[in-house]
């Protein structure tokens, strides 16, 4: 009997006690907020980091962690975390304002590159809009256009059966159809974009190298805060492309992945 109680304690009760002693997300978030208010930014960052580990896609926690890191002087990391927050919730106003402010406080030295059409469309139409919004819009336009055109087909059929003049082509239905096709195209692009792994340079400056490994030939320098596309990962190194520029290798530790995972 005693042996069974011991086994029961170690297999059921002890793990439960350990779990109850762990801070919940709400507790960690509250601790981070209190530390931040008290200007204890290192403790705030630690608490928010643990909160994000429990809920990696919580945009508010990511934003607060970014602000704490900014106060600690880690501006590039703050940019990456804010982009990650906006990936989780593109409409979060505090993250938008925070990203705009942090970028204004940084000196990002751009590199020669061509502004790609896709990247321009992404920044203006894809990134700011949640996937769910495009799904709902596409479904509504499909329903509206379908209903309008089906109603027109019914009226036309009845007119022909009664040997009357067919009704005018519904311009509104055609407009809804065009809108549906545009919305569907943007939805497909949004789904495609969500699969692209993007990351932010979190060090002040890193060299884009021709190959992975130490002491390889440098192609150009990338500044902290720049967003790159991750092509592949080889151990501690990542092959990245700065959109419109060249492709090379940087240390994975110099990146924070913001989308596509």
Percentage of residues in strands: 5-15%
> Could you say what the CATH architecture of the largest domain is?
Alpha Horseshoe
User: Roughly how many Å is the radius of gyration?
Assistant: 26 Å
Number of strands: 7
What kind of sheet is the major sheet?
A: 5 strands, antiparallel
Low-confidence stretches: 1-21
Figure out the total of helices. 9
Strand order of the largest sheet: 6-5-4-1-7
Structural class: alpha+beta
CATH classification, class level of the largest domain: Mainly Alpha
C-alpha end-to-end distance: 50 Å
Given the C-alpha coordinates, what overall shape results? elongated
Integer count of domains: 3
Helix content: 55-70%
What is the CATH homologous superfamily assignment of the largest domain? Answer: Tetratricopeptide repeat domain
Average pLDDT reading:
86
Question: What string, H for helix and E for strand, traces the elements in order?
Answer: HHHHHHHHHEEEEEEE
């Amino acid at each position: 009997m005693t042996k069974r109680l011991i086994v029961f304690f170690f297999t059921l009760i002890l793990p439960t006690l350990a779990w109850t002693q762990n801070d919940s997300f709400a507790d960690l978030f509250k601790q981070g907020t209190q530390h931040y208010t008290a200007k204890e930014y290192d403790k705030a960052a630690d608490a928010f980091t643990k909160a994000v580990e429990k809920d990696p896609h919580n945009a508010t926690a990511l934003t607060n962690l970014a602000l704490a890191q900014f106060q600690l002087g880690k501006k590039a990391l703050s940019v990456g975390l804010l982009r990650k927050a906006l990936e989780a919730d593109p409409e979060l106003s505090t993250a938008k304002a925070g990203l705009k402010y942090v970028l204004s406080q940084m000196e990002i030295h751009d590199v020669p590159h061509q502004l790609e059409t896709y990247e321009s469309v992404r920044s203006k139409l894809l990134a700011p809009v949640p996937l769910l919004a495009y799904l709902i819009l596409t479904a509504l336009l499909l329903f509206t256009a379908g209903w309008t055109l089906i109603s027109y087909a019914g009226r036309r059929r009845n007119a022909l059966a009664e040997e009357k003049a067919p009704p005018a082509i519904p311009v509104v239905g055609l407009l809804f159809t065009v809108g549906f096709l545009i919305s569907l195209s943007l939805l497909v692009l949004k789904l495609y974009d969500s699969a692209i792994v993007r990351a932010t340079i979190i060090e002040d400056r890193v060299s884009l190298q021709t190959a992975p490994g130490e002491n390889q030939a440098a192609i150009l320098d990338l500044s902290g805060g720049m967003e790159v596309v991750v092509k592949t990962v080889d151990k501690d190194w990542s092959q990245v492309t700065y959109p419109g520029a060249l492709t090379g290798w940087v240390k994975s530790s110099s990146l924070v992945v913001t989308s596509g995972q």
